[in-house]
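hey so i finaly got around to running the thing on Hydantoin racemase from Pseudothauera nasutitermitis. pasting the sequence first so u can double check i didnt mess up the copy paste, my clipboard has been acting weird all day
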Amino acid sequence: MHIRLINPNTTPAMTERMGACATRVAAPGTRIRAVQPADGPVSIEGHFDEALAAVGVLDEIRRGEEEGRNGGAGVDAYVIACFGDPGLLAARELTAAPVIGIAEAAFHLATLISTRFSVVTTLGRTVVIAEHLLRAYGFEHHCRKVRAAEIPVLDLEEDADGAFACIAAECRRARDEDGAGAIVLGCGGMADLVDRLRAETGIPVVEGVGAAVKLAEALHGLGLGTSKHGDLAFPRAKAYAGRFSYFGA
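ok and heres what it spat out for the 3d tokens, dont ask me to read them lol
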């Protein structure tokens, strides 16, 4: 199986780290290819960043589909490795393969192992984005609280020890103050912290990159792909102007 893991930001170190985390949990025979757009924000920390990053996600889906049509290794599933799930539904229109967002994947798995969970994310401004996703995906009543460690995303790369201390403190508060049975990590860049945080808190900690990989493998194994009936059908053929002309018929 071939999974194309898309980091929607443009920081190579984060792409490499998430790819390594995905490979670590993948089943034997699953190949992970971690990619990122050529253009876009170096980190995604708000609605504006997500809007720009969504175009890059769609470009990477298009490239994956074209590679398969041109005799390259076909992509069996895609993972969008940003907790805002930028461009998720639009990406699903472009392919019949499963497309998994890491936030939706993490929420699903958290409900299978606990009756209530809390989310620990990076900045306070992204709390609202996570709350919107919880509501849209139908998980709002499972979530006790969305907490922010108040660290910029790039601190996960540039101040790893300080970032971990802040995240661990919020995870402990989620356990002790929220009564959460599990914690969902609200940033793909936290993927490599999951084992340390489980040891630190003593409760299940779910990170979305691994969750999305395992759900992608499950869907592929069951022969399930994105429905092409209804709103997720392939986009209607039409012309696109200017810089988006390459999306046109």
